[in-house]
Amino acid sequence: MKKLYFKKILLSSLFILSMPSLVYALPSIYPTGVTIYNPKKAFNQYVIFSGADNKTHLIDMNGHEVKQWNYPGFPSAIVDPALTSGIKGQVLLQLEEVKQPVALASAGNGLKNKSVGQLDWNGNIVWQWGDKAPKGEAYQHHDIRRLPNGNTLILANLVHKVSGFKVPEVIDDVIYEVDAQGKTIWTWKASDHLNEFGFTQEQLKLVLATQNPDYLHINNLAPIGPNKWFDAGDARFHPDNLIIDSRNANFIAIINKATGKIVWTLGPNLPAINPKTANTVPRPVDQISGQHDAHIIPKGLAGAGNLLVFDNQGDAGYPSVQRGVISGSRVLEIDPIKKEIVWQYTASNSEQPDWAFFSSFISSARRLPNGNTLIDEGQNGRFFQVTPQGEIVWEYVSPFIGQAPNGKAKSNWVYRALPVPYQWIPEGTSRTEIAINPPKLENFKIQ
Question: Which of 377, 291, 300 is nearest to 334 (CA)?
Answer without folding.
Answer: 291
